[in-house]
């Protein structure tokens, strides 16, 4: 697959690097990746959507790839309100009118946040793991031991030993997560290495560690973003058209997320796909078809 040039655009907070596919005048789509992945998770999805007439924007999230903070004094926050606002600021900077958002992992969380807080700015949503807005209060309660074991990396990141592990052994740690979260997906060294370059960002460790420590309540978030976090704590419904997806073999989401349907009050479909956590890269046609479905609803 041909490598697309990396472009960038400035917002108040970030110089956001992104890859674009499709016609300049196409219907806009923003596809957001998670941890520990990058824009290459959407390579095949973007080709399918571009052929369907979409203008596809794939940003490197804060702390990944060539994306950089505009100021050395800005808090290296990884919290959900920051990442959701980044999507809105990216859409504004690129003058995208009501884009469809798609995401998984951190990207699904950020896309849900953007759709919930700024529904008038968003056309529709494709969300892996359904209503993926983090309830901070629930994160402080224990879950089943089998699931706590799957969450080992989150517990590790609460310690300075975990920070050191991510700093010194990020490639081994991240590859292990790829393998554990997508147990039926066979990927080669080149596929992992293509995305792993994004983990060399100088803010990668700080953003990742802050994300997981703030979720557990062990580090404060950005005070300027607290009003957004307060709104998210109210678990706002999502008004825009949504297709939600579960991966049938994702150990992070045992049992799936079909029960989240009540949080979507507009047109909504839920789909289960034979894939693990990195669904866009494992089953690109299924993810692309979900985006096209939302586009069809929008007319």
UniProtKB/TrEMBL annotation:
It comes from Kaistia soli DSM 19436. Residues 28-279 form the AB hydrolase-1 domain. GO terms for cellular component: membrane. InterPro entries: AB_hydrolase_1, AB_hydrolase_fold, AB_hydrolase_sf, Epox_hydrolase-like. SUPFAM superfamilies: alpha/beta-Hydrolases (SSF53474). It comes from the Bacteria. One of its GO terms (molecular function) is catalytic activity. This is Pimeloyl-ACP methyl ester carboxylesterase.
């Amino acid at each position: 697959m041909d490598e697309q040039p990396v472009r960038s655009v400035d917002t108040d907070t970030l110089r956001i690097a992104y890859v674009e596919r499709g016609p300049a005048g196409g219907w806009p789509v923003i596809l957001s990746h998670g941890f520990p992945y990058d824009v290459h998770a959407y390579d095949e999805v973007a080709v399918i959507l571009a052929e369907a007439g979409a203008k596809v924007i794939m940003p490197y999230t804060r702390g990944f790839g060539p994306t950089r903070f505009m100021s050395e004094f800005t808090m290296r926050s990884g919290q959900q309100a920051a990442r959701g606002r980044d999507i809105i600021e990216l859409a504004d900077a690129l003058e995208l009118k009501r884009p469809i958002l798609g995401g998984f992992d951190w990207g699904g969380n950020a896309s849900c946040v953007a759709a919930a807080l700024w529904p008038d700015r968003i056309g529709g949503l494709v969300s892996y793991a359904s209503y993926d807005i983090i309830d901070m209060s629930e994160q402080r309660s224990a879950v089943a031991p089998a699931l706590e074991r799957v969450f080992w990396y989150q517990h590790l990141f609460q310690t300075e030993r975990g920070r050191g592990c991510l700093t010194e052994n990020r490639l081994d740690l991240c590859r292990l997560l790829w393998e554990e979260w997508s147990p039926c997906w066979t990927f080669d060294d080149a596929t992992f290495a293509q995305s792993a370059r994004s983990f060399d960002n100088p803010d990668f460790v700080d953003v990742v560690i802050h994300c997981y420590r703030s979720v557990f309540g062990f580090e404060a978030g950005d005070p300027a973003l607290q009003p957004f976090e307060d709104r998210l704590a109210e678990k706002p419904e999502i008004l825009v058209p949504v297709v939600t997806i579960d991966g049938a073999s994702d150990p992070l989401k045992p049992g799936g997320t079909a029960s989240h349907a009540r949080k979507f009050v507009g047109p909504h479909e839920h789909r289960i796909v034979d894939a693990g956590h990195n669904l866009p890269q494992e089953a690109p046609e299924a993810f692309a078809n979900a985006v096209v479905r939302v586009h069809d609803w929008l007319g």
